[in-house]
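Example record

Each entry pairs one chain with its bound ligand, adenosine-5'-diphosphate.
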Amino acid sequence: MRTGYDLELVHLTKRYGETVAVRDLNHVFSPGSYVCLLGPSGCGKSSTLRMIAGHESVSDGAILLDGADVSHLSPAQRGTAMMFQSYALFPHLSVRDNVAFSLRMKGVDKDKRHARADELLELVQMTALADRLPTQLSGGQQQRVALARALITQPKVLLLDEPLSALDPFLRIQMRAELKKLQRELGITFIHVTHGQDEALALADEVVVMNNAVIEQAGPPREVWGAPRTEFVARFMGGHNVISLDGGKVALRADDVRLGAAGLPATVTAVEYQGATVALQTRTEGGEEVLAILPEDQFFTAPKSPGDAVTLAWDEGRLHRLQA
Ligand code: ADP
Ligand code: MG
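Structure tokens for the complex follow.
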């Protein structure tokens, strides 16, 4: 059995008047993968997703799904489905009728579409609440209904625009685990837009980092986090220092910085207890900010406070050169 379909972006561009929201994207998504499209607000994530879904026209380039150019097909003809940030459930329809809605539009008879809706509701564990109205559901429950509604069309690719942003932090972590599990069970590609690097690292098989309308770096989360190519990626992914050295810039993981006897003199400017680790913000004599993340047991053998002098050390081999 085949699981997953190829999705490819070819010179994909979106212009709104003078604004170039998406500039010449070229990317092949691995079939059946969980992809996170990550980047700051305004970098072009939603425009990219909406073009893939067919909710936004393509200015230039093409979107290929399973080898066919779908760029000019309507959303319903593409084999993609989109789950919106606001869930957009119909308030006057029951949970079951919300899920069955697109089948009703296609003229599928009531028994058949309800049976199919019930299968999807089982998948998202909402069987017991099938007769409720959306207003009688919590945020997490509404999200499950929205997922079931998107999946009933049996999409080849599911597109999710900031699907967790309306949830409180606790529920967000619970729901992201459920999204991941669902993607594995279904075996289709999920493209999940987020501006949260922790969310992307937790979920993705592939992280695609966007900045200023272009893809800045794409790869497995460990590669993107551990080997950022540019200063932007190093700073955006977090956990790295960007240091000027011999006219170039290097990245140094904050957890690779030690307090040593010999090294770079610095002054502690802030201390943050994080549980398993302690984050020590320092400033060197040259005025450079360097963050050290220390194991908490190590920190507490010789605790530091703001104003204390320290010496920063690291292994040269851990410096990672960045592209200009
Ligand atoms: P993101 O989802 O990463 O926050 P968007 O794709 O929504 O980014 O927006 C990218 C850029 O395109 C922004 O500069 C935004 O202001 C602009 N933009 C988005 N939608 C429209 C629109 N309908 N009309 C004009 N400009 C838009
Ligand atoms: Mg957006």
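The first helix runs from residue 45 to 53.
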